[in-house]
Specification:
This protein has one helix and 14 strands; from the N terminus they run E-H-E-E-E-E-E-E-E-E-E-E-E-E-E. The chain is elongated, with a radius of gyration of 23 Å. The two termini are about 15 Å apart.
Amino acid sequence: MSNLKVYAKTIEDEALEQINTLLSQDAFKDCKVRIYQREKEDLKLVRKYQGVENVPDDILLASGDYQVKVTAGEVVSASFDKKFYEGIKSFTITKGADVKVDVVANVGNTVATVAFAETMNPYFENCMVGVAVKAENGILDFTADDVGKLGYFSVPVACDTLFCTFEATNKLTGEPFVHIDTIPDVVSATLYNLTYEFKESEVEVP
């Protein structure tokens, strides 16, 4: 008996490091900066700026609790090149005090990459994996030529699942082969390494 398996390895820190090194300063030229004042359980927008060059060196705010949110990039369901960045920082202003607030905007997407183990070679050719989220235009196709390529997904809150459809031609029969897997509970700012392997199952003899 034989089984096709997909192994999903989550690498959060590596994802942030690898993706953020691809970020150029151009991505933040048109970033959005929003400052909110906290009023009990609510946040009230009190300042907004478009682009870092439009953010003043000094911003006068009344005493109180605040939150600053920085966003950059483009939010799309799935893309190989369009990324979304987000950074949020809470801070408190007290009378007569100067407060410096540094905000780090990290990738906000769920990221996936696909690899095919050598155990696949004797059995399959023309391998392809469609990785999708439950959203319009939310699918990316990975082939053997895309090993190491990163796909960026905006996962809907209502369905935090990656749907992975493996398609190939069976070398032994020449027939098409399809295998579907799901990866539930995926999170943002995390890299999912999806590795496909073909293993012979051990059958126990009574």
